[in-house]
Amino acid sequence: MEVAPSPRHPPKRGSKLSSAKRRAETVDTEGMWCCIVRRPAAAMVRASGEEEWRRRGSSVAAARHDEENATTGGNAGSAKNSKEFVLRPKELEALIKQGTGIVVERTSKGSPFRLRLSPGRVSPISETAIVPVTASSSPALGKCSSGKMLMPVSPPVDKARASPTLMEMMALEQDIHSSKQSVMLSLPRPPSVQEKVDAILLLRSPGNQFNDPSSSDVKLTITGRDGFSISINVHRHILTAQSRFFAAKFSDWWSKQHRMPLNAVEISDCEDVDLYLQTIRLMYCRDLRRSLIKESVTRVLGILKVSAAILFEAGVVSCLEYLEAMPWPEDEEERVTSLVSQLQLDSVASMEVLKRLSSIEMVETESIVARLLQSVIQGTDEKARRETKSLVSRMLRENPSIAKDSWDSCRGCIYRACESCLEALSRLFTQVIESSNAAGYEKEGTLGAQISRQADNLNWMVDILIDREIADTFVKIWASQAELASLYSRIPSVYRYDVSRITARLCMAIGKGQVLVPQDVRFLLLQTWFQPLVDDFGWLQRCCKSLDKKSVEEGISQTILTLPLKQQQFILLGWFDCFSRSAGDCPNLNRAFEVWWRRTFVRPLLETSCVHQLTN
After folding, report:
1. Whether the model pTM is above 0.70
2. How many domains does the chain have?
């Protein structure tokens, strides 16, 4: 630590301190923090804090006051010296070594330092607590018996909080590590094999002879693959009646040992000792299904495997009945079907279990898909429609394993649903035109909602067709709807703009190569529906928030550029007329126009010049 200069040799007026001396220095002394702040002025020491600090600090002031009176002949006992006192460097070091946190500041008067108490471990400059210094711990304070001290000056509050120190960060890291360890320790650990075995042995109810040494006649020892072993007391007649495996074992021993009874049986290399033990216990239960109620599906599968191995038929049936009636977690379905199929159990109960996940009868995919589509199309509740559309789309997308023949039939029912929606649109367009002529505005609003719903149905089914890569036929159907397009132009945009989303979606799919259709179909599509799409593009931008304008413009441009130059010219010149009148409500096809221009005018010139150079 750098000790403050002696008050007898104050710095000269106007002297400049280096930047290193201007900064605050932090010293850790026996768990306390002190900070020395250097400022360009003289130094004096002032005590600030609680009553204890005032009382003990006043003794220092009195001692210094008496000392200076004796030296200067009493001239030092002025009012100023009663307010201010000076600490020499040795006294300052003594206070720091005794555990007192102090802050020394330069002032504009008197002596080169001013002292303010600064304890605390969070911030090096802390003014919220006082650490008193006892008289017994300081020789300078111990010899002071009396003194007079005026009210101390409170230091200014330092609102800026200092950064944590290295020791604090290390302590915080230890706290975090200990908290993580406590969380890990608080997590329940899986019970050991011994604990599982003890729990099974404690379940013996009054009157139950399981593991009863007084009445048993056979000692059964079960040894696991890990070396764990357990011996229990069982009864020969119960095991023989319940298990054909034990019946054969006892019978074989009886015949080989000249009618000597078998008193000890050992089952070695057991996969799960606790499951084997619980299966033996089930042989002593009157109601096996009731005994399995509180067990998990995983544990019952283990009991089923053991029961099948020792030919415990009552246990097998009870486990299968449990599995048939109990809901399974989705992650257990594969294990259930795999185990039941692997065991090859010839029982009605096993067939009932397998029926939950597989059907012996052929499932008519077409009728199911047609019914789902019809329910969605005829729905009127918008929230329900959104949920069901999302559900059906997700299920169809997540089941790519549907056979090709089944999807061919599904394709037919989807296209039939699309044709019914197109017929409904044509009928609704005609009704809107008739109601407009009769000034039936209220009826127009209802018809407009129905048009929007049918257009939404078509968009949803088009997405399904594109996702399944079977939308080529729909592009032909939509491109040939000349009569519907003629009715379309006579309807206000507020009722019809949703229909233009179908054209935009098809152009996006063609532009990305998701749908492959002949050139004449692509030109017929743009010839029939491009102008309605341009007319309603402003409405689509404002009302269809889910529509990506850039993607639509890119899809239209790519679709146009797949046509011959003459057809590109026909489409793009018509677009240019509309774009020049209202660029904001028209798709931006500048890139397609530039490409067409270069193909038409620039490229032939380049080819001609190249040929001319080659001939020369």
Report:
1. no
2. 3
